[in-house]
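task queued by scheduler; priority normal; single chain, no ligands, no partner chains; default sampling; output format set to structure tokens
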Amino acid sequence: MRPIHMVDLFSQYERIKPEIDAAIQNVIDTTAFINGPDVKLFAKELSEWLDVPYVIPCANGTDALQVAIMALDLPKGSEIIVPAFNYVATAEVIALLDMVPVFVDVLPGTFGIDPVKAEAAITGKTGAIMPVHLFGQCADMASILAIAAKHKLFVIEDCAQAIGAKYTMPDGQVYTAGAMGHVGTTSFFPSKNLGCMGDGGAIFTVNEALAARMQMIANHGQKKKYSYETIGVNSRLDTVQAALLRVKLRYLTSFTESRIDAATYYDDAFAAADNILTPVRDPNSTHVFHQYTIQVLGQNRDELKASLAAKGIPAMVYYPGPLHLQKAYEYLGFKAGDFPVAEHLCTQVISLPMHTELDEEQLAYICSSVLELVSVAQN
């Protein structure tokens, strides 16, 4: 059996090596390292793939969030509602822009932001809601969009883990993650479903004026060279990264199918195990499985992780601590017990290997090992 990796980027590269190498070599040969033709071509191709009219590539997923917020022109001190069970980037950019991250709890099944809790957190200073499409599945966007419309708020979708996921609205309309709110953002960090070989990100919108403003902000606040219309940042997607992302984009549908196949194998293997909670599928959203995250009842999660490692099976904990209890955000005044679902999940969740190169022998070994260890712990 091949060694098991949490993410097997090398095997994926080997599969498409000639195309990746040719794309990179072409950039080197043309020396178009900054804003070369591949950047514009990638933006166009990703726009078509996502069915969203405007895509602005940028340097990374965190920059995408920052540029998106800057473009909305919210006043200093504005509050932006974010889930407490989540990666830090969402809260980080809000704080950096002299605004206030307002944490709310998440739903225990899908781990997405709880719309009821989000609406309860709205004040006169609230400017936006930032749902995070965690682990590969869309948040409850129908509810979030309705709440935002009712209170005249912006919606910024963080779909760094869910590129390509589809969401069906109550009226039957189907949208791609990132194309439902005012702005969508994503990351092309190497381990993402669509990952480059370094850092990269992008911003999406259906609003032409907002797209132009975000493009300007990401380019030092200039519409044309040396003419600065607003305070901006320098956030560019390297041409080399754009070139290889163009190659990977052509495989993204099949990559997603491979992830779903692996998740289905896990689901079937754990179906009869009452003490293993497998990922909940929201009937309104597809799941593209950036992570396959389970909860094991009646066993110490960290002991299970260590036992799996001893068998050569990597596992990860996303996330071991909720954002509201991090030292960096103590100033906001939240305390233990404020968001019980998020706090509970941080002690329970464990993610199993999930990538495009998992084979049946590896999956069988992972599943049998998990079941064996969980069974031993129960006895």
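post-processing summary
- Residues 136 and 157 are 13 Å apart (CA to CA).
- Residues 239-270 form the longest helix (32 residues).
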